[in-house]
Design brief:
- The complex is a heterodimer of chains A (about 110) and B (about 120).
- By secondary structure, chain A is mostly beta strands.
- Helix content of chain A is about 0%, strand content about 55%.
- Chain B is an all-beta fold and about 120 residues long.
- Chain B is about 0% helix and about 50% strand.
- Chain B is built from no helices and eleven strands.
- Chain B is globular, with a radius of gyration of 14 Å.
- The chains are: A mainly beta (about 110), B mainly beta (about 120).
- Chains A and B meet through strand 5, strand 9 and strand 10 of A and strand 5 and strand 10 of B.
């Protein structure tokens, strides 16, 4: 089993839709979780951290399920500008971040 | 521009040649990371430094790869005797140290796209 797994997609949704991605991780000792956004041919950019209690930033909600070892990202009211690849990243202790392959989102008019 | 900068943006080289990339991290960040990314994959960790000390290296980092951060500021990544399989985007990232808080929040540079012909 890979350390961090994501459905590569693409997820094709119309503007205004709600879409959710999951990311599973294999190491139960993982402590920190993040979602990064990567536009085509650009560098990844931190979207949000994922806290145990769940957290929300505008239209974006991130949640952590430790029992089932996955994190999720919910995007409400999708915009054309949300089209990108969403990478989840996981950290164990003081080690480095391990990234998933990313999930591609395409929002159409 | 106070972000992470990488140079060059693009590098085309012939198989067998040596290449060197440079990364300038955000000035107050004492951690610096190198990742590699190929099409359809997420970034894969190569190595990282805390100040000038190289603390971890991935199994992906063959002996043809070497990284330095001599004064704890900028870093260089050298690939010797390049192979076609080395073609990838090489991403540098920086973060604050663990004693300063949330060190896992990485800030990436724009990357160096390497093409080995």
């Amino acid at each position: 089993r890979k350390e961090v797994e994501q459905d590569p997609g693409p997820f094709n949704v119309p503007e205004g839709a709600t879409v959710a991605f999951n990311c599973t991780y294999s190491n139960s000792a993982s402590q920190s979780f993040f979602w990064y956004r990567q536009d085509c041919r650009k560098e990844p950019k931190l979207l949000m951290s994922v806290y145990s209690s769940g957290n929300e930033d505008g239209r974006f909600t991130a949640q952590l399920n430790r029992a089932s070892q996955y994190i999720s990202l919910l995007i409400r009211d999708s915009k054309l500008s949300d089209s990108a690849t969403y990478l989840c990243a996981v950290n164990v202790g003081y080690s480095t971040l391990t990234f998933g392959k990313g999930t591609m989102l395409l929002v159409s008019p | 521009d106070t972000g992470v900068s990488q140079d060059p943006r693009h590098k085309i080289t012939k198989r067998g040649q040596n290449v060197t990339f440079r990364c300038d991290p955000i000035s107050e960040h004492n951690r610096l990371y190198w990742y590699r990314q190929t099409l359809g994959q997420g970034p894969e960790f190569l190595t990282y430094f805390q100040n000038e000390a190289q603390l971890e290296k991935s199994r992906l980092l063959s002996d043809r790869f070497s990284a330095e951060r001599p004064k704890g500021s900028f870093s260089t990544l050298e690939i010797q005797r390049t192979e076609q399989g080395d073609s990838a985007m090489y991403l540098c990232a920086s973060s604050i140290g663990p004693e300063q808080g949330s060190f896992e929040k990485l800030f990436f540079g724009s990357g160096t796209q390497l093409s080995v012909l």
